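Severity: low
Component: inverse-folding endpoint
Summary: output formatting inconsistent between runs
Steps to reproduce: submit the following C-alpha cells with default settings.
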C-alpha cells in the first residue's frame, strides 16, 4: 500500500506544538489579509427622488405657479447584503422640520412601514429584511411628508448575496494551446488572460461564480496561477490557486467569482510563459437552483482495498453515490476529493455522470509513481452513479472521498468572496488569531480560525484553497471540523479532536501543492489542518467563499 493517501494507522496524535522557525525560502504565495473584503453597498442617490403632491394636498405643496415647494423631501438609499438571504436598507430622508411616514416595498410582495420626524433636517432608518428566495429585486421606498403635503419616491435595485449551483457537463472553455477561449499562444510570465464565462457554453448571463478545473502545462519554470474577477486583482492580490514547477502539468479546482462583465482573469505569477486550460463543471447564480450540504469527509472508494485492485489502462468504473450512503437520492452533483496513487505511467483521471460519454476533459493529471489529489464537483447520473475513467495506458489506484453534495433539498447558498483573501500563512504571524509563525509539526494539527460576522447566521461550510510548502518529506493534509470552541484554544483547555483519515492533498519532498477544500466548520467557527506526514510543513489558507443557510 502506498503511504500518504489518508491511511496511516497507528499515528500518535499530538496537540499543536510551540512555534518553530520558518522553513526554507519558497516562491511568495501572496500576502496575509485579516478578513473578507466588505460586501458592496448599492446606492440610489437623492437626486433620483421623484416628488409629487399628496392626494388633496395641492394647495400646501405648490406655490403660485403650481411648482413643488423647495422644502420637498429627498430620499437617499443604500442596500447592503448581510448574509445569503438577508440585507440592510439604509434610508435617509432629508426635509425641513417634517413628520414623515415611509413605506418600503421590498419587491417580493412584502412591505414595511416606519414613522419619523426630520426635526434636524434629515432622518435615517436602517431596516433589515430577509428574502425567502434568492434573486434580483427592485426596492421602492415612498416617504410621505404630511407636513408639506408631498411624497417622495426612490428605488434601488438589489441582488441577494447568496447563489445556488447548477451542474454543467464538463466543457473546455480555455485552451491556449488550441486557441479556445483566448488566442493560441502561451500566457507570458507575469501577465494574465481574460476568459469570458457568461454566455460561453450555455453558462447564463448574470453568473456570479463558476466552477473551473484549471490546469497549467508546458511549464519551463516555477510559478503560480491566480484566478480573480478583475484583471487588476488577479495581478496584485497574489493569492494562489495553482502552483507549479518546470515540466509539471498541474490541475486544481477553482470556484471563481465572476466579474460584473462576465469575465474571470487568470494570472501567471511565474517568470516563464505557460499554457492554461480551464474546464467548466458548474456555476452559481443568484436564483433558486441547487443548495449545498456539507459532509465530514467520507471515503467511498479505495481501489487498493476494494473494486478488485488497480484500474486498468483506459479502464472505467462506476461509483454508486446518490442513495448509497450519506448522499441522498435526488442529489444532482457531488463534491469529491479525487486521488490517484501508484500510477505506472503518466495520464489523467476523468470523473463524469454515469451513463454519459466520457468528456474530453481531465479531473486530475499524474506522472509515474506520483500521488496527487484534486477536488472535483461531478454531476450525478440518472442512476445515482458517477463514472471514473483512467486516461493512461497503464493501471493506477484511485481513492475517492465525498465532502458534500448539491440538490433541491439542500439549503445552504454560496456567498462568493468579492476577491479571494488569505486568512492563514504559517510562515507569518497571524495577529487577529494569535498564531505565531512556524510550520505545522509532523503528526500534528493547526486549528485555523475563520473570521466571520458573529451576529449573522452561522457559516455551515467554507470554500478554501489550501497550499502546503517547505516540504522536506512526503505526506498528506487532512482538513476537518473541530469540536472545541475557539475560546478553548485561547484558554488552553481544548481537547484533542479525532484524527481524520481522509486526505485533502498529498505532497513529496520539495513540492508546493495546492488543492481546493470545501469543509464543514466546528462550533467555534474554525477548522483543523492536519499534517499527516513525518516532517513539518508550512500551510497557507486562502478563502474563496462560504455557504450559509440564512
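Observed output (run 2 of 3):
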Amino acid at each position: 500500500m502506498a503511504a500518504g493517501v489518508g491511511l496511516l494507522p497507528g499515528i500518535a496524535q499530538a496537540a499543536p506544538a510551540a512555534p518553530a522557525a520558518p522553513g526554507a525560502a519558497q516562491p511568495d504565495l501572496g500576502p496575509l489579509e485579516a478578513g473578507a473584503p466588505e460586501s458592496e453597498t448599492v446606492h440610489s442617490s437623492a437626486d433620483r427622488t421623484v416628488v409629487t403632491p399628496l392626494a388633496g394636498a395641492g394647495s400646501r405643496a405648490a406655490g403660485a405657479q403650481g411648482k413643488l415647494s423647495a422644502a420637498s423631501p429627498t430620499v437617499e438609499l443604500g442596500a447592503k447584503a448581510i448574509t445569503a438571504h438577508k440585507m440592510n436598507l439604509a434610508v435617509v430622508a432629508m426635509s425641513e422640520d417634517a413628520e414623515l411616514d415611509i413605506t418600503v416595498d421590498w419587491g417580493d410582495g412584502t412591505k414595511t412601514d416606519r414613522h419619523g420626524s426630520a426635526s434636524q433636517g434629515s432622518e435615517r432608518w436602517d431596516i433589515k429584511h430577509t428574502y425567502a428566495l434568492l434573486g434580483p429585486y427592485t426596492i421602492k421606498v415612498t416617504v410621505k411628508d404630511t407636513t408639506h403635503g408631498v411624497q417622495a419616491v426612490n428605488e434601488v435595485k438589489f441582488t441577494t448575496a447568496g447563489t445556488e449551483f447548477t451542474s454543467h457537463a464538463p466543457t473546455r472553455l480555455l485552451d491556449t494551446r488550441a486557441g479556445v477561449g483566448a488566442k493560441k499562444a502561451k500566457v507570458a510570465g507575469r501577465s494574465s488572460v481574460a476568459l469570458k464565462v457568461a454566455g460561453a457554453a450555455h453558462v447564463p448571463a448574470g453568473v456570479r461564480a463558476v466552477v473551473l478545473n484549471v490546469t497549467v502545462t508546458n511549464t519551463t519554470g516555477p510559478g503560480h496561477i491566480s484566478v480573480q474577477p478583475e484583471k487588476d486583482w488577479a495581478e496584485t492580490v497574489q493569492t494562489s490557486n495553482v502552483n507549479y514547477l518546470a515540466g509539471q502539468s498541474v490541475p486544481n479546482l477553482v470556484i471563481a467569482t465572476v466579474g460584473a462583465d462576465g469575465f474571470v482573469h487568470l494570472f501567471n505569477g511565474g517568470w516563464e510563459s505557460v499554457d492554461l486550460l480551464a474546464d467548466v463543471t458548474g456555476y452559481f447564480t443568484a436564483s433558486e437552483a441547487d443548495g449545498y450540504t456539507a459532509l465530514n469527509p467520507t471515503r467511498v472508494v479505495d481501489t487498493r482495498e476494494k473494486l478488485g485492485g488497480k484500474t486498468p489502462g483506459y479502464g472505467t468504473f462506476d461509483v454508486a453515490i446518490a442513495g448509497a450512503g450519506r448522499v441522498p437520492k435526488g442529489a444532482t452533483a457531488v463534491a469529491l476529493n479525487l486521488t490517484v496513487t501508484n500510477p505506472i505511467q503518466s495520464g489523467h483521471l476523468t470523473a463524469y455522470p454515469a451513463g454519459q460519454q466520457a468528456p474530453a476533459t481531465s479531473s486530475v493529471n499524474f506522472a509515474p509513481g506520483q500521488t496527487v489529489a484534486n477536488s472535483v464537483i461531478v454531476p450525478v447520473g440518472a442512476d445515482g452513479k458517477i463514472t471514473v475513467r483512467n486516461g493512461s495506458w497503464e493501471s493506477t489506484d484511485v481513492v475517492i472521498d465525498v465532502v458534500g453534495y448539491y440538490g433541491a433539498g439542500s439549503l445552504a447558498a454560496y456567498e462568493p468572496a468579492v476577491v479571494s483573501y488569505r486568512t492563514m500563512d504559517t510562515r507569518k504571524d497571524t495577529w487577529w488569531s494569535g498564531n505565531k509563525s512556524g510550520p505545522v509539526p509532523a503528526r500534528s494539527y493547526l486549528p485555523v480560525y475563520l473570521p466571520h460576522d458573529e451576529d449573522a447566521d452561522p457559516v455551515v461550510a467554507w470554500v478554501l484553497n489550501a497550499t502546503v510548502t517547505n516540504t522536506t518529506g512526503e505526506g498528506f493534509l487532512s482538513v476537518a471540523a473541530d469540536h472545541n470552541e475557539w475560546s478553548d484554544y485561547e484558554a488552553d483547555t481544548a481537547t484533542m479532536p479525532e484524527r481524520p483519515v481522509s486526505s485533502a492533498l498529498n505532497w513529496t519532498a520539495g513540492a508546493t501543492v495546492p488543492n481546493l477544500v470545501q469543509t464543514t466548520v466546528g462550533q467555534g467557527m474554525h477548522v483543523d489542518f492536519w499534517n499527516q506526514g513525518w516532517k513539518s510543513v508550512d500551510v497557507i489558507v486562502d478563502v474563496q467563499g462560504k455557504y450559509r443557510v440564512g
